[in-house]
Structures
1.
Amino acid sequence: MKRNIDVCLSPELIGLYDLKGKIVVVVDILRATSVMVTALANGAKEIIPVATLDEAKSYLNKGFLCAAERGGAQVEGFPLDNSPFSYMNEEIKGKPIVITTTNGTLAITKSTTADQVLVGAFLNIQAVADYITKQDKDVIVHCAGWKGKTNMEDTLFAGALVELLYNSHNLACDTAHLSLKYYQSVKDNLLETVKNSAHAKRLNKLHVIKDIEFCVKQSTYDIVLILEGKKLI
Ligand code: 3SL
């Protein structure tokens, strides 16, 4: 029997979904989940996503390597920012990394009643799809959006994942259809489309255009990130 795939377009809406028994794939293309995938693919031991700066500070005080972003910028006092390029070096190898971001880590912490929480990005989308097709579970894609609002790039990821799972899953809601049609209408021009998103424009002011180019690359990494307790491994 085919399982269902559903798409939640904002963490503000996740309370409307019953996550029990399901796989939730959390996505924040720009940039939190792209960063997490990059960090683990480049040898970080595990990622500890936390929703608040206070939680991140308490880890920092215990000597953990910590990243903190608010409004796109690195938070003062934290050694790491939210660029994937900051996670491609020896400094992170073998270490747990604590991350708090404006939207991405909040979406993860709001998903924990699911049977399994995965972290998805274009960078590992094929690995996520392959993993899901081996499970006998319904799926919800949880888009982190921006401060409760829907965004373009996470919706595009949702559509791309729906396309990859089209033969194995029923499209359980209108948002699965919407995101699929949207992705299919722009997929040959993904980078240019994402460059026009509100968040890409915000990030441009911070001069991180190369992050945007990197975050729309598809299936660079063959890894699946799964939340085990408080850690993504
Ligand atoms: O909101 C988030 O979680 C961040 O990924 C935003 S930013 O890309 O670092 O600006």
2.
Amino acid sequence: PPDVEQLGRSTWTLLHSMAATYPEKADSQQQNDMQGFLKFFSKLYPCWVCADDFQNWMAHPSGRNKPQLGGRKEFGWWMCEAHNEVNRKLGKKEFDCRFWEERWRTGWKD
Ligand code: FAD
């Protein structure tokens, strides 16, 4: 079975990089594409408990966790919150989402 930690690190890199290169303002085609990606990603992610929890989080009945796909800023922030949800679940430190762009788009590596 895949190494859940290694898989996770690589996958967050992919997901945050996708947010970092998302258009500043996304048209409806681009929003649809990302919506579709997230839908299938959250079904197919090869850590099944992770995938289940992530799907349930996104589909919270209040609608509060729905992907924010209007543009890079909202989507990046949303992805950061999604990651923080997992951080909380695992007892890891939360990331200050104000630094999201610095970490994943413009700046520093750790
Ligand atoms: P990661 O959490 O992998 O983070 C990598 C880097 O991202 C960090 O070093 C930091 O620089 C940056 N970062 C941290 N938080 C944020 C943030 N909020 N926003 C932006 N950047 C940030 N593991 C489980 O054991 N159980 C699960 O249920 C589970 N669910 C997962 C669901 C998904 C969708 C994904 C992608 C991964 C999941 N994982 C799960 C894996 C887990 O999230 C971690 O990737 C793994 O534990 C390795 O953690 P890490 O401490 O190396 O850093």
